Amino acid sequence: MRSERLATSLLLCLRAVDDEYTQSNSFDELADDYITKPFSMLILGKRITALLRRSENKSTVSTIRLGNVTVDFAGYTAHDENGKIDITPKELEILKVLIENKGLVLSRNQILDDVWGYDCDVIDRTIDAYIRNIRKKLRLDCITTVKGIGYKFEMENHYENKAIL
Q1: Contact predicate 31/22, CB 8 Å
Q2: End-to-end CA distance of the chain
Q3: Of 47, 59, 77, 83, which residue is least crowded by CB atoms under 10 Å?
């Protein structure tokens, strides 16, 4: 399967066969995902979105300067000219997810899944409180609310980014 296609392409198997051997064999042949018929178009769309999100070549942000605030994601710290800023690990993780998906609108549920995992008991509106805290603590105006959907990080060349290699 995969050897006959470009290394950068994704393979989502949509098949009527739902036996374990066929599914296992598909993954052995380097399929990225497998869905059996019948399937929901909504779930198909979500799986495709998730595959595309995971396949993007994103650099992992280590340190970033946002105006006069420096954020060190590896050290879970932030500081400005006045010293250390009191910020929680979850707030930093949310900020990192937004920065790594710069320009993309992320739903509250996408942020929850990326930061807390798929089996979390946190409601999606919790993200609103975290975003409010991030904006206040770091004095940021680059996190945009997309009404009814979620949030996105938008910032032109006003920051420095150092990626982990």
Answers
A1: no
A2: 31
A3: 83
